């Protein structure tokens, strides 16, 4: 993919299991129409990604092309074999995926995905040339320093097997406070900033995983990026992105942030070379 002179903001969304295949294709078509002409995308200041349901991955890739990266909402720990119902990293890569989501709080809670599973899935993504989109976050509201320490522990633990296996590659750490997922509004601005600043510093220092970045999720929507842009590299959007107009609004935020940065009105904002 092409890289802009300054790192682009990474803006993405997961459709979870909300959309039918037809609705997913319609959403991707609408987002593609926006991205094709939006200055934040055409200038390279924003990089889009979408994580649709498995059945819609090929269609999403066909519709979006180079306008957005496509990812899988999950990944098998193994690359092939007698694993009924699983989808491997090799299959995701073959279908055009660039990303694989790992360790979302819902999968941890509903499907019992624990540390060993997250470690194995992170390694599987890297082994197959996919960027792991590793979801991390504290289970309840803590003091920001404690939350940051927990998130750092979680990202290090997720990478433990990959390091043992000699695997390298950039990682996207998706900070989603579990108590904010599905909430009416995201965590408070200063709370997010206090957690993400040390988390991003740590993620950027990961040896063998150069280019790794931090995005914020957890009820993220329009207006948030402007308030936290100097401590994150982008946003991982949920239901607020179901309306393509919200994606367009956030891309407008990116353009305004870049203009303000160029004018020296704000200090260097985040961005990602993923």
Automatic annotation (TrEMBL):
<dbReference type="InterPro" id="IPR013785">
    <property type="entry name" value="Aldolase_TIM"/>
</dbReference>
<comment type="pathway">
    <text>Carbohydrate biosynthesis; gluconeogenesis.</text>
</comment>
<keyword id="KW-0312">Gluconeogenesis</keyword>
<keyword id="KW-0963">Cytoplasm</keyword>
<dbReference type="GO" id="GO:0016853">
    <property type="term" value="F:isomerase activity"/>
</dbReference>
<dbReference type="Pfam" id="PF00121">
    <property type="entry name" value="TIM"/>
</dbReference>
<keyword id="KW-0413">Isomerase</keyword>
<dbReference type="InterPro" id="IPR035990">
    <property type="entry name" value="TIM_sf"/>
</dbReference>
<keyword id="KW-0324">Glycolysis</keyword>
<dbReference type="InterPro" id="IPR000652">
    <property type="entry name" value="Triosephosphate_isomerase"/>
</dbReference>
<comment type="subunit">
    <text>Homodimer.</text>
</comment>
<comment type="similarity">
    <text>Belongs to the triosephosphate isomerase family.</text>
</comment>
<comment type="pathway">
    <text>Carbohydrate degradation; glycolysis; D-glyceraldehyde 3-phosphate from glycerone phosphate: step 1/1.</text>
</comment>
<protein>
    <recommendedName>
        <fullName>Triosephosphate isomerase</fullName>
        <ecNumber>5.3.1.1</ecNumber>
    </recommendedName>
</protein>
